[in-house]
Amino acid sequence: MNISHAIKLCRTARGMSQMDLAEKANISTSYVSLIEGGKRDISISMVENIATALDTTAEIILFMAADKEKLVNIDAKFADDLSMSILELLSAKKSGVEEARL
């Protein structure tokens, strides 16, 4: 499971910096950096906190973090395609928010 990579993917899809995420999640920028660098394990409650700050769910982050070969009931290609679709939706949602601000 690579939760650090999933969080970084979701953050960048949202167009957020580590500082933006830290502010929204009420944690330090250095802690975000340590999480994304895989240097800190995080609790489920912290995943939920970060997911809320990213305007997504912990379940989506955990799915994206799952080792595809361990998703025994889901074809690996389908899991990859689904992850890419999630990132596209996160990016599209970010664009929609930006357009609404104009």
From TrEMBL:
<keyword id="KW-0614">Plasmid</keyword>
<dbReference type="InterPro" id="IPR001387">
    <property type="entry name" value="Cro/C1-type_HTH"/>
</dbReference>
<dbReference type="InterPro" id="IPR050807">
    <property type="entry name" value="TransReg_Diox_bact_type"/>
</dbReference>
<protein>
    <submittedName>
        <fullName>Helix-turn-helix transcriptional regulator</fullName>
    </submittedName>
</protein>
<feature type="domain" description="HTH cro/C1-type">
    <location>
        <begin position="7"/>
        <end position="61"/>
    </location>
</feature>
<keyword id="KW-0238">DNA-binding</keyword>
<dbReference type="InterPro" id="IPR010982">
    <property type="entry name" value="Lambda_DNA-bd_dom_sf"/>
</dbReference>
<dbReference type="Pfam" id="PF01381">
    <property type="entry name" value="HTH_3"/>
</dbReference>
